[in-house]
Task: inverse folding
């Protein structure tokens, strides 16, 4: 579970996203950060019990920086209004399929998958789905998977026509049009403060493992 003060800090940061306010409230940020890091460490330990690739990860290799890179952005706000962590083999800088946690007041969610892989990786995933469509659909249609992620595969980042090399009548076409392969489910603010938060997250992540295994097998 997280502390109420952590969410309160993020709410205030959203209203006061500027350096003077942040520096004045740095102690509140440090407390919120430590609270989140403790949760991340406990999740690394928990995920590691069913996914050995995660067990040896360091917290710093999973957690994203609070500071935004605004060099080429129109939005010049210096800080992110959320806290996020990505758990995958090799750490957040390696583009392999993994588990994701996003904490933001009113917009928190748990997710997993492979987001916008480079062209060569995308081609491999599409090929794997084409060759092993039955295995892929079995994962997506599993009762536990559909219960945890009822929205199914995100339809964000899809192309309108069949990708090069695939026919319009390909039975896997609805999946081959994807450029990202992710699933998401929301977390209410109230869930974040409950002792059941960690078991809830670990249950969602464990359900994701066959999905991630399929994706990672295709790109390795």
Result:
């Amino acid at each position: 579970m997280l502390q109420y003060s952590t969410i309160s800090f993020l709410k205030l940061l959203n209203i006061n996203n500027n350096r003077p306010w942040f520096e004045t409230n740095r102690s509140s940020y440090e407390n919120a950060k430590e609270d989140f890091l403790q949760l991340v460490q406990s999740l690394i330990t928990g995920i590691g019990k069913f996914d050995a690739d995660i067990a040896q990860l360091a917290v710093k290799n999973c957690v994203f920086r609070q500071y935004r890179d605004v060099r080429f952005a129109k939005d010049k706000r210096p800080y992110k209004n959320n806290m996020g962590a990505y758990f995958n083999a090799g750490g957040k800088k390696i583009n392999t399929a993994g588990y994701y946690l996003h904490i933001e007041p009113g917009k928190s969610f748990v997710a997993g998958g492979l987001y916008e892989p480079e062209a060569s990786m995308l081609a491999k995933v599409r090929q794997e789905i084409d060759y092993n469509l039955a295995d892929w659909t079995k994962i997506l249609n599993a009762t536990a998977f559909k219960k945890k992620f009822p929205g199914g595969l995100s339809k964000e980042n899809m192309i309108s026509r069949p990708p090069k090399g695939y026919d319009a009548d390909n039975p896997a076409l609805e999946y081959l049009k994807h450029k990202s392969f992710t699933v998401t489910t929301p977390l209410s603010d109230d869930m974040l403060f409950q002792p059941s938060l960690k078991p809830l997250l670990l249950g969602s992540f464990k359900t994701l493992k066959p999905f991630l295994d399929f994706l990672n097998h295709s790109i390795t």
Remarks:
- The mean pLDDT is 96.
- The chain has ten helices and four strands.
